[in-house]
Amino acid sequence: MDRRSFLIGSTLTAATIPVPTRAAPSAYPAAEATIIVGFAPGGAGDLAARTVSRYAISARDVPVTLDFRPGAGGTIATDQVARATADGSVLSLFSVSPLMVAPHLQKVPYDPLTDLTYVASYAGISIPFFVRSDSPFKTWDDLLHHARANPGGLRWATAAPRGLPHIATEAAFRQEGVSATFVPFGGEADAITALLGGHIEAVAASGYAPHLEAGSIRLLIETGPEPIADQPELPTYRERGYPLAISAAYGLFGPAGLPSNVITWWEKLLTEMTGSAAYDGFLKTLRGHRLFQDSATFTKNVQAGYREIGRQIEMLGLRP
After folding, report:
1. Is 216 part of a structural domain of the chain?
2. Which residues contact 130 (CB under 8 A, 6 or more apart)?
3. Residues 187-208: pLDDT tens digits?
4. From CA 74, how far away is CA 166, in angstroms rounded?
5. How many whole angstroms separate alpha carbon 244 and alpha carbon 18?
6. Do 112 and 133 fall into the same domain?
7. Average pLDDT over residues 81-86
8. Which residue of 86, 142, 194, 320 has the fewest C-beta atoms within 10 A of its own C-beta?
């Protein structure tokens, strides 16, 4: 499997999202655009959206504002985008959890297969599970041993409750015979602050890089299928044979029926951005990897991943 893909499991045959039928406006953008971010400011999602916003301003002189709408694991923001006018004035930062996980676990007011347009993805990310650097847990197995000996005593968190890192880690713990306590937070910045303050013992989140460079955390395992580029010895969920091994990506999506010229405008901007110095700096800060998927490829991958995650959730008995 291509390590730059964020799909899990085997590739599935994807269904097609309806072809947009809305008439394209004569010029785009006619005014500023808004990118809704479904998570609190200060995390990796903030950085991913801000990088696009700044590049659009600097390269096209197009004002792109960020609108942070945290809550309910990103589903509130996703619903807002699904209801927006399909003219390109409102887009959102793509995250796996509200689009590929939440609809399998709770009732949401949108259908990720029909109510949205997937514009493009532009960065691959890692989501490691980590502890404080002074933690007694030197390895993943150390943590598992402690958790088995102290049922419910291990407190841990992710960027969003019931997101894919949460579900994947719960599945890993179940396979390992571990009972741990999940502590919900509004965003990864709050979760990491709680970790550094000693209020919880571990976090699985993508915004780990600055803390790793500062020497304040220790990575124990990568929740995705492939090793982190500069951490080749770090084990992965796939290597350990856990049911869900994820790779994640950031991208943009909008309401269903986005005009083709809007999609093309963003595809061109994001392609250009991935060759810029600003993008290189973003990847270095995020410790992400270079990735670009146009709308057609992105759509197929989202749909295939959505169906595979649903299959795994059903097999694991995690569906409510």
Report:
1. yes
2. 195, 202, 203, 204, 205, 208, 211, 212, 217, 218, 219, 220
3. 888 999 999 999 999 999 988 9
4. 14
5. 29
6. no
7. 97
8. 320
Asked if residue 230 belongs to a domain, the reply is: no
H or E segment and range at residue 164? helix 164-176
Site of tokens 């590929």: 100
Give yes or no for a contact between 69 and 91, defined as CB atoms under 8 angstroms apart: no
Strands laid side by side in the 289-293 sheet = 64-68, 33-37, 90-94, 248-255, 116-125, 289-293
Q: What is the mean pLDDT of residues 286-300?
A: 93
**Is 164 in the same domain as 215?**
yes
Whether cis (ω within 30° of 0) applies to the bond prior to 103 is no
**CATH classification at residue 267:** 3.40.190.150
Q: For 151-186, what is each residue's pLDDT tens digit?
A: 999 999 998 787 888 989 999 999 999 999 999 997
Count of domains in the chain? Answer: 2
| Domain extent at residue 65 | 33-125+247-316
